[in-house]
Amino acid sequence: MKTIVVPIDYSKHSRNALGYALEIASLTGAQLVLFHAFYPIMPPPASLDTTDVIAALEEGKARSLEDFGRTTLTELGKENGRLDVYKTIVIKAGARMGGSYEMILEAIKRYEADLVIMGMQGGGAISQALLGSNTISVMQECEVPILAVPENIPFRPFRKVVFATNMRKMPPTTDLEPLRSFLLPFEPELKVLHLYRNNMQLATFDPSAVQEQVEQKLQGLALDFTYDVRDNVAEGIQRFIQEQQADLLVLIPQRHSFLDRLLDKSITGKITAHPQVPLLALPSVTLKNAQNSSESMAEA
């Protein structure tokens, strides 16, 4: 892992995301790129060159972001007793004028990010659908893993991880290397969870072949597989997280329409509305490319 992009909006949850980024960078040796997307308070005067004005605004915002990064690094370093460690981390800053969703995706490509760490703020499904959720939107489009961090949950090492997935919808070509690479430095116990929606699914699907493939793709990690029947998958995942006292949840989010989100059909949306632990979202392309179609997973 070489580069971690951290979108910053100066809120408490983005500050906490930076705390996670500092810890992960100290473990992996990655550089951090702080990124801020903005709109100007008022449009530039017609007499000025718009391109020059935008460039000046972006430069000024980037300087402010650098100041924020240095200040926050010092504060968190003193709070955690890790200031000397944090000071060794390379931190850069960038700002672009435009919508957060579009600019974050652009920054991920421009800086060749290996990981994105974003703040995650809870909210109901209707508010997510109407107001939009940058975190969920970016998860569904991003081609690198995204670690979504709840506002009030400080960093702790990922010792026990739950990977909730629909193994019925996992083709043999599914790429799990991003998950393996992310988790290896933490040496966690990885609980792979598959939930059947009803007893008919339980009777008609044998997961043994898929389990063997997953074991091969995640070599080097301590794996444990759990199969259960839950009619409400989101609640089943959340309950399993509590039972296992997990430090991290892993999902593969899929695209959902406005109506799906409004009706709260997205499992990712339900879980991020009431986050219990950080969420690592593997790229949707993980399954999309493997299936060679736009068919969504039934569970996410």
From TrEMBL:
Span of domain UspA: 1-150, 229-282
Transmembrane segments: 20-39
Claim: Transmembrane helix is one of the keywords in the record: yes
Domain of life the protein comes from: Bacteria
Entry keyword set: Membrane, Transmembrane, Transmembrane helix
Keyword Hydrolase: no
Family label: Belongs to the universal stress protein A family.
Protein name: Nucleotide-binding universal stress UspA family protein
Gene3D superfamilies membership: HUPs
CDD domains per the UniProt record, alphabetical: USP-like
